[in-house]
Each structure stands twice: as structure tokens, then as C-alpha cells.
Amino acid sequence: MKLYGFWRSLASYRVRVALHLKGIAFEETPINLLSGAQHSDDYRKVNPQAVIPALIDGNGPPIFQSLAILEYLDEVHPSPPLLPKDARARARVRGLAQIVACDAHPLVVPRIRTYLEKDLALDEPARNTWLQHWTAKGLAALEANLAGNPATGRFCQGDNVTLADICIASQVVGAAFFSVDTKPYPTAVRIFGDCMKMDAFAISHPLKQPGAPASH
Fold first, then answer.
1. For 87-202, CATH number?
2. Among 35, 89, 105, 168, which is most buried by a count of CB atoms within 10 Å?
């Protein structure tokens, strides 16, 4: 498989984790979001939306959007499963994942930051306030759904890693990028800590990827 990603991309991180969890060999082609490489004609042929990640599997068309990629991988490589068998549990896992991938993360991606800077003329402190606010809101929503819920175990849904844990890990990594205090979200942070004990999460971390700075 071929993954179009970028070291700093939290959505790419999610896909990288899933590929490693399932033991799928892949080659990652970096698309430098900071230099605008996603807008090149060549990459727009892969994903006309000019966002990452995108996944190539065989001769079929590219697969795009991180959650769609994760569910695709789970369907074609079902072991280990990333969704529980019970319908209600699956819905909860998807809901937790979507808090991150559909609500919180889209508000802090590079195209939003560029719009805030170029079109709305917000200075860096104002942009940082925006990033921290929406990152914290996402963590708060996760914490409210996890803390005290009997379905929460070592991980978001019991004791097995699911889509939700992959998404929570990306949210906590993003919180570190944006200097967000995570102390108010102990359940999410605890789950993140258990995720990071697993090789698939640790080696997929943005700062472990080629091109990442030595420190952040």
C-alpha cells in the first residue's frame, strides 16, 4: 500500500497507527503541508480536495478521509478488529472517533489556520487561542463521554483498541502541538498513555517520522 501523508498531520497519524496495528506493509510519500505541496497538480490528481491522507491499495482509485480509510482497512484486513461486534458498542466507538475527526480536528488543520491568517488577518496569538480552544473542546467532549461510563475500560470501549482510541491518541498529540493543558481530561490522557505503550502507536507518532524536527 502507498500512503500519502505528512509527519505533522494528525489524520496521517491515525492511518499510520491502523496500518501498523494490522501489520500491513506500506510506503509513505510525504506531502509537505507547510510548503503547500498538497496544492500541486500532481497531488490534486490523487485527491482533488488537496488534503491528506490518501491511500493507494492496488490498482483501484485513491481512498481518502482518515475515518473512511480506517474502516476500509478494517474490512479488508479484519484482524485485529478496530470495531466491536455489538451494534451499540460500534455506534459508541464511531461517535467517539467522530468527535475528533469530524468536530474538533477539522477546525485546526492547515487550511483553517491559513484562512485565519490570510483572510481574517488574525495575528499569531489570536490564531493560537483558536487552536487551543477547539482542541480543548474536543478533549472535553471525549472526557465527558468516557469518564464514569461502564463501557470504558483500559481503552475507550473495553480492553481492546478501536477506532476511538486511534482518534483520541491523535487528539492528545495535537494538544501537545498546541500547548493545551490536558490535566482536566484524565481519562483521555490515561487511555492515550496505554495506547503509547503499544509499538503501533509509538512508532507512528508524528515526531518519529522522517522530516520531523528533533524537538517540537
1. 1.20.1050.10
2. 168
